Amino acid sequence: MASIFSDSDYNTDDNADDNADDNALAEMEAIDETINIYKSIKTHIEKTWKKIYEKEKISLETEYREKKVNLLNMEEKIRNQQKEITAQQKALENEYEICEKNFKIRENAMKNAQMYTGKNKMVSINLGGEIFYSMHSTLATISPFFGRLLSDDFGEPTRDKDGNIFIDMPSIGFEEILNWARFGKSDCYINAFLEQFKIYSSKDKINLLEKTMNYFGITYNNTMIEKGKKIRIYWRGDKTLLTAEVLSSKSNYPKLVVKYEGDGEIWEYSHRKIQHKLGPYSCYSASSEIKKHCDGEPLYWHYGKHNGAKRLDTFNEPPQ
């Protein structure tokens, strides 16, 4: 049987297939080229953005550092201004304190001047052969003895050949007693004097001074720490006021040793550290709750082992 297709028809089909392959290949090459172009553009964009980012980053970091430096400079300037203001304020406060102090000095001086006017007059006394000069009002406040001696009711006192009031008693310690009266009869002053006197004087002189003071009727608030005396000690940590007995003599042992009532603990302190006669824990400046237990005596305080206090097992004072 003869074929209905000729040889030319077969050739035409082969050509068509070849053309289709060529077209497909061309399209693929075009797609590859487009992809490459896209990649190239993408790479370019990424590089460009990276450069922009790095540049902006550097710019922002530089700006941040500059602002930080400016801020630190401003803070330093403010601190310096605050220091200057504080210094000026302190200077003004000091100036005010000086002015206030000078004002009080001048005010007191005018009051003191009144002592030398009117009925108040100078008095001289011969005490055991030593002459003392003072104002009438000062001597009269020492004790009832001098108040009565200088009153009009007593009559004319005995005088020596020079007209001084004569008192047949030793003058031992009287200069300090007179100063004590001149400055308001301070407990701190008289106790400090008597404490030093007892340390550096003989027993005979100590007894003589005591007899002289008793003769004149001179009384004072005895706040000296003596052996056998009971003192009140404030424990700040526990906020407790405890009573303790003094076991040591200052003239014989350099430290203050006490035994607490109740638990019987024995502690050793420094005389200087434990005494706060004018400090925040004294009877003059302590709270009213503490003052109720103080009875006019200075308040001593336990300053702890970290400041040098020692707890002892026993204590035997060395012989004198």
Name of the top-level CATH class of the domain at 122-216: Alpha Beta
Contiguous helical run count: 8
User: Total number of β-strand segments?
Assistant: 9
* N- to C-terminal distance: 161 Å
Strand order of the largest sheet: 8-4-5-6-7-9
**Shape verdict:** elongated
CATH architecture of the domain at 122-216: 2-Layer Sandwich
The overall average pLDDT, rounded, is 80
State which percent range the strand residues make up. Answer: 5-15%
Q: The CATH topology of the domain at 122-216, please?
A: Potassium Channel Kv1.1, Chain A
Order of helices and strands: HEEHHEHHHEEEEHHEE
Identify low-pLDDT runs: 277-293
Helix fraction by DSSP (H/I, runs of at least 4) = 40-55%
| Major sheet details | 6 strands, mixed
- Cα gyration radius (Å): 50 Å
| CATH homology superfamily of the domain at 122-216 | Potassium Channel Kv1.1, Chain A
Secondary-structure class: alpha+beta
